[in-house]
């Protein structure tokens, strides 16, 4: 990974660190935003906290912000909505653009695209009732994962092993999203791989292997527990890490991502086949987060990572100033 050490913090202008927001991941977003804000300010960036749940987005334009670092997670921050508003205001922002963010947030649409491109992802069914969930279990086999199609951080997720559990699992997922996804469970190593950059210049960072207590990498074990082990270098068999990095890069480019993202992958224990689960277009930046951990493995500090991501802020469709809202 080539790290640009010549970024001039003053040239980045007045920066809004978007944090908090309205999603179910608000608490995590506030933690991510606080870390990024402190890091940018420590490097001399004119950075300011901005919570869209407490202030209108129009204040960004009215107060003369030059770019935005998005640390919002989930809906209304990672799904293309904020990205669209920033496009209209002409404020460059971090991470993928409107379409890539919207598609990546929707796990069903992501799977359809990956499958169309021949990329491996677990078998799945989209369901709209308990009966359809039970039918999905019969088709996919047990165990099966039931989750909202448009949430993150394992919110609303259940692991089902028998038909009697389908009603509760469906109800939990449907509370968060009317679109519910049933997914084949892949038994094996859980890994994640961040990507930085755009197009042909995009590069995959080191793969991290995740070992959670009892194999349960849930919300608590992601953000608050010290029991989860993160192994980097990942200590996978020879050639597997490079193959996963290549797969993740293809998945990233296929969805049209730019700036940065992080893909989650399961490796089948029996076949060693990697399967793409999902891609996160506004990765966490908390003390337990994975992109900073992977970046450190190639000598990139948290502060350098924040500067690198911010310097790559862009617009999908730059327009003349007079064309903006």
TrEMBL record:
Keywords: ATP-binding, Cell shape, Cell wall biogenesis/degradation, Cytoplasm, Ligase, Magnesium, Manganese, Metal-binding, Nucleotide-binding, Peptidoglycan synthesis. It is an enzyme of class 6 (ligase). The keyword Coiled coil does not apply. GO terms for cellular component: cytosol. Gene3D superfamilies: 3.40.50.20, ATP-grasp fold, A domain, ATP-grasp fold, B domain. Mg(2+) 2 binds at residues 278, 280. The active site is at 25, 153, 289. Binds 2 magnesium or manganese ions per subunit. Its EC number is 6.3.2.4. It catalyses: 2 D-alanine + ATP = D-alanyl-D-alanine + ADP + phosphate + H(+). One of its GO terms (molecular function) is ATP binding. Cell wall formation. This is D-alanine--D-alanine ligase. The lineage of its organism: Bacteria, Pseudomonadati, Pseudomonadota, Betaproteobacteria, Burkholderiales. The gene is ddl.
